[in-house]
Design a protein that fits this description.
The complex is a heterodimer of chains A (about 425) and B (about 150).
Chain A: E1 10-12, H1 22-26, E2 32-35, E3 38-41, H2 51-55, E4 61-63, E5 76-81, H3 95-103, E6 109-110, H4 113-130, E7 137-138, H5 143-152, H6 166-182, E8 189-195, H7 199-205, E9 217-220, H8 221-234, H9 249-252, E10 269-273, H10 275-286, E11 295-299, H11 315-329, H12 337-345, H13 367-383, H14 397-406, H15 415-423
Parallel strand pairs in A: 5-6, 5-8, 7-11, 8-9, 10-11
Antiparallel strand pairs in A: 1-4, 2-3
Chain B: E1 8-15, H1 24-35, H2 40-60, E2 61-70, E3 74-83, H3 89-92, H4 102-106, H5 114-121, E4 124-130, E5 134-142
The chains are: A alpha/beta (about 425), B alpha+beta (about 150).
Bound molecules: adenosine-5'-diphosphate, iron/sulfur cluster (2 copies) and magnesium ion (MG).
Magnesium ion binds next to helix 2 of chain B.
Chain lengths: ~425, ~150
């Protein structure tokens, strides 16, 4: 592993990788190359979107997430499952059942994140009403979107709402509460998120707006799916009715595309999902086109977190399950708005510090040199066939041209240019 | 003055009335600048200037070109079009002044802030126009003061 891969959430398993070009072609930031017949991730360009993970037909792109065994070192273990989990086991399984089953899987406490989602949703509205001049304000929920902005659209970083997402706020609150109630040192409490994506590992290991994440790790939904399913099948459902807690559909639906804006009846909003559409809308924001939109929700995964790469259920079925739950639980707010106002004033939800810009490195640190390289790249492009076949190990001709200009690839890598040479 | 060798240049064609492709050239310009590591704040200014200039050709001219250059000292954007031209430049430069049609306004254009915003975001800005012939904008954004 290279030094930078430590801070990323995916890696290539060289034993499984056959060097086909699926992941390389699908990477939105062109961070993958094929070298010596294997995919190699250039981590300085990776935004942890998980596209490569979705695309690999051989399971050779592996997520790096927390294992349940990693929690042994904690005296008290807490799970905060993403509400996405409620969509994974069919329409007949209730959130209460899933929470109940989790409680018996080695956790001392299981918290329903939907409640915090509702609180954060209210906090966002308070923020929007107090900041009427900056537009559009962009959601901070998806760690990939935040990093995409930091790296590809650094001028937009001040538009990111400086409010931490529900998973972090839930962990912050629980650590405080549990430590007081059970007289346990905060560092002996292990709080993990149950996650639909590996990207959360990056926001936990390298947070951008706080010194230290409130979470200790994230367990993949994929990894614990089977065990939950088996236990659900064995549970006596009649026992569960009284464990139902008052949550509303607003919180349960939060992780679905459109979930964050659903509660906002009086604001102009847009919700976008999927990595390419997110890049497109951010380009529009950069061009100054979305000035009349107050809140822009962007989620990197198709249809939102329910389409996360570590989910199991088909995302459209998951969507239907969540929609059903929303009908059952209703869309009336269940949080105490005054409490949220008080917490907001105390800066409970606020970023600790602003997000630093961290644009991708240009062709060269020296501007004159970078311009020269760009001209070189253009000249090399003229020699390449423009077929974007990927056989050279770069995702397209433009990227190969760039790699040649940078001195890390060769014109001979192009199978068509090679052919030319033989002809002559 | 920068020599030919350390200047990168590219020409873009713009078609009047083509709202489908509108904005693509300025998007490409931004990506080029990101690729050579230009400061985000400069890119933001270029983005606004290039987009507004491009949109004015789309809205008020038959066709035009953007001639984009970047050298270590500055970014140049020359936008030239064949079209109706501007009768009263001073008036066109006034914030809020617009001759956009009702349809254009419904599409969200025509706030009359394009030319003033181009000027605000450029270090030097000149505009010349011949009625019935066309309009030419010369925009320079300097690089040396930041980064
Ligand atoms: N390239 C152009 N050709 C002809 N007329 C133009 C051109 N650019 C601007 N104008 C005129 O100047 C006015 C002001 O332009 P601008 O400040 O961009 O505002 P807007 O485009 O919102 O009307 C336009 O309404 C139009 O009458
Ligand atoms: S996670 Fe996304 S950005 Fe990173 S290598 Fe995979 S596809 Fe590319
Ligand atoms: S959309 Fe949700 S699941 Fe997908 S990367 Fe972002 S936070 Fe993770
Ligand atoms: Mg205009």
């Amino acid at each position: 592993m290279t030094t930078t891969s430590r801070y990323h959430s995916i890696k290539i398993n060289k034993k499984k990788c056959i060097g086909c070009i699926h992941c390389m072609k699908g990477c939105p930031t062109r961070a993958i190359r094929i070298r010596n017949g294997k995919a190699v991730i250039q981590y300085q360009k990776c935004i942890d979107c998980g596209e490569c993970l979705r695309l690999c037909p051989y399971d050779a792109v592996e997520p790096i997430t927390t294992l349940q065994a990693d929690l042994k070192r904690f005296a008290y273990k807490v799970a905060i499952p993403s509400p996405v989990l409620y969509s994974q086991f069919g329409t007949q399984t209730t959130p209460a059942e899933i929470l109940h089953v989790l409680q018996h899987m080695g956790f001392d406490h299981v918290y329903d994140e939907a409640r915090m989602c509702e609180m954060v949703s209210t906090a966002i509205e308070i923020y929007l009403d107090g900041h009427k001049t900056t537009r559009p304000i962009i959601s901070s929920t998806c760690p990939v979107v935040v990093r995409l902005i930091q790296r590809l659209f650094p001028s937009l970083r001040k538009l990111i709402i400086p409010i931490e997402p529900p998973r972090e706020m839930a962990a912050k609150n629980l650590r405080r509460e549990i430590s007081q109630r059970h007289k346990i040192a905060p560092e002996d409490i292990g709080i993990i998120h149950i996650t639909p994506c590996a990207a959360k590992m990056v926001s936990i290991n390298r947070p951008l707006s706080m010194k230290r994440s409130y979470l200790d790790g994230a367990i993949s939904i994929h990894d614990i799916y089977n065990e939950i399913m088996m236990r659900i099948k064995k549970t006596n459902r009649s026992l569960l009715l009284d464990t139902e807690r008052p949550v509303s559909g607003i919180g349960i639906g939060w992780t679905m595309s459109g979930g964050e804006i659903r509660g906002m009846k009086y604001h102009n909003t847009i919700s976008v999902s999927g990595v390419l559409d997110t890049i497109r809308i951010l380009e529009d924001v950069e061009a100054g086109k979305l000035k009349d939109i107050e809140y822009l929700e962007c989620l990197i995964c198709p249809e939102g977190c329910i389409g996360g790469p570590l989910t199991v259920e088909n995302r459209f079925i998951a969507q239907s399950t969540i929609n059903r739950l929303k009908r059952v639980y209703g869309e009336k707010k269940t949080v105490d708005v005054r409490t949220v106002h008080r917490l907001f004033k105390e800066k409970f939800f606020s970023f600790e510090h602003s997000i630093e810009p961290k644009p991708f490195p240009g062709l060269d640190a020296d501007r004159a040199e970078a311009i020269k390289m760009l001209n070189m790249k253009e000249n090399i492009m003229k020699k390449l066939p423009g077929k974007d076949c990927g056989a050279c190990g770069a995702p397209d001709c433009a990227t190969l041209a760039e790699d040649i200009a940078l001195g890390v690839a060769n014109l001979n890598d192009c199978v068509f240019c090679k052919g030319d040479r033989h002809d002559k | 003055m920068a020599s030919q060798k350390d200047t990168f240049q590219q020409k873009f064609k713009i078609k009047g009335g083509d709202f489908i492709k509108a904005g693509e050239s300025s998007c490409e310009i931004r990506n080029i600048l990101k690729g050579i590591g230009i400061d985000a704040e400069i890119i933001r200014r270029v983005a606004i200037a290039a987009y507004e200039a491009e949109m004015n050709v789309v809205m008020y001219a038959q066709h035009g070109t953007i001639h984009f250059t970047v050298n270590p000292q500055e970014i140049g954007i020359i936008v030239e079009d064949r079209g109706q031209g501007i009768v009263d430049i001073e008036r066109a430069m006034q914030p809020g002044y617009s001759t956009a049609t009702e349809e254009m306004r419904e599409m969200g254009f025509g706030a009359g802030m394009g030319l003033p915003n181009i000027k605000k975001n450029s270090d030097t800005f000149t505009i010349t126009s011949k009625v019935g012939k066309g309009t030419k904008l010369e925009i320079v954004i300097k690089l040396n003061n930041t980064k």
